[in-house]
Design goal:
Length: about 220
């Protein structure tokens, strides 16, 4: 659906881990960043025109120019990565944007993973799941889905999430927390996103967007 909001998730084949160390997490995140950050085409083209550009810099620029980009097709609102699965909350700005984006991301990461660990074949459990948030109160559901995703990693773990962007600790151009954060206050701690995150209740009405995701472990 064009401009629709989706909860996307997938896990490793046979529930195996798809992130075995910190490098795996960081490589996956680097691919997200590359795919979702708009290309600075004028700068990349200028690399070939500058005499001081090294062959390595030119090669990198060439690869970035050739790499697919989905910044005009996908907005990533939030994410969480766990050893054997991931969660995204995205807005699909063009029809089939999610399908092309996830296919490219999955293929690129699988190639990295298989090369590093000397294996072949798929690393993901079939086709990813994408649940459309289709209720008229979709904005409310987005708030609680973001909390569900950010609370998905076990407490005390340091698995990567977009929570730092929501708490003002980090700023990343390829993550779009603004829509959700407009409903919270920076000045009033009782109405902050941090306070919302620590609430114990979760409306049963949004369970349809999350129930399948609970089976990823």
């Amino acid at each position: 659906m064009e401009n629709g909001f989706y909860h996307i998730y997938n896990r490793g084949i046979e529930k195996r881990n798809i992130f075995l160390d910190e490098q795996d997490f960081q490589v996956f995140l680097s691919y997200l960043k590359i795919y979702l950050t708009p290309k600075d085409i004028p700068y990349l083209n200028s690399v070939f025109e500058l005499e001081k550009s090294t062959p390595k810099e030119k090669d990198k620029a060439l690869k970035l120019l050739a790499l697919k980009n989905y910044s005009d097709k996908i907005d990533l609102l939030c994410y969480a990565l766990m050893p054997n699965h991931f969660h995204f909350l995205v807005q699909q700005k063009t029809v089939d944007g999610i399908n092309h984006f996830i296919k490219s991301l999955g293929t690129k990461y699988s190639m990295y993973f298989n090369k590093k660990y000397h294996r072949v074949g798929t690393i993901f459990q079939g086709v990813y799941k994408a649940v459309l948030v289709d209720d008229e109160n979709y904005l409310l559901y987005l708030l609680y889905l973001s909390r569900y995703i950010h609370n998905n990693p076990p407490k005390g773990s340091n698995y990567p999430t977009s929570l730092p962007e929501y708490l003002g600790i980090r700023s990343s151009a390829w993550i779009k927390p603004e829509l959700i954060l407009t409903y919270f206050s920076k000045a009033n701690p009782q109405n902050s996103y941090s306070s919302f995150l620590s609430e114990k209740t979760l409306e049963e009405s949004i369970s349809k967007y999350m129930i399948e995701a609970d089976d990823v472990y």
